[in-house]
Structure to design on (157 residues):
């Protein structure tokens, strides 16, 4: 994780068995303090908020990894610093992903008017799985299937 050109956090993952490794002692901070991809976002750019680093990489330009389904207060401050013109919430296709839409929407709504959401297709867990099944398909799927998120829509989910 880089911020303003400085390495601020790291994690690694074994690609065969999905075992993660994190820094042992990095003060009081952890991955919920940072946004993966923060340094690649231009102020005012549309952003896509995803759960994992691998999902961010799978979606490409403008995709930011939260390190979990819901973002922290510190991550929210950083999202506000980016001043995105629109935000797309693109969580995993599971219970935590659905639940995160509500908390993330309530946190974002006072500051942003264009809040969208999209889930991976039925039967697919996350954006990396979409990309693995058909390379080059994840980003177009997000762009073609995102919907405006409103309070009534939240209650329909």
């Amino acid at each position: 994780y880089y911020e303003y050109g400085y390495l601020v956090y790291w994690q690694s993952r074994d690609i065969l068995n999905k075992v993660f490794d994190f820094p042992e002692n990095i003060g009081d901070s952890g991955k919920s303090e940072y946004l993966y991809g923060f340094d690649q976002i231009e102020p005012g750019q549309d952003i896509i908020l995803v759960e994992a680093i691998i999902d961010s990489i799978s979606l490409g330009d403008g995709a930011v990894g939260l390190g979990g389904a819901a973002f922290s207060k510190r991550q929210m401050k950083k999202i506000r610093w980016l001043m995105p013109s629109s935000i797309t919430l693109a969580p995993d296709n599971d219970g935590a992903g659905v639940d995160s839409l509500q908390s993330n929407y309530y946190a974002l709504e006072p500051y942003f008017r264009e809040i969208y959401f999209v889930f991976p297709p039925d039967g697919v867990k996350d954006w990396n799985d979409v990309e693995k099944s058909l390379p080059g398909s994840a980003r177009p799927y997000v762009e073609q299937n995102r919907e405006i998120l409103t309070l009534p829509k939240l209650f329909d989910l």
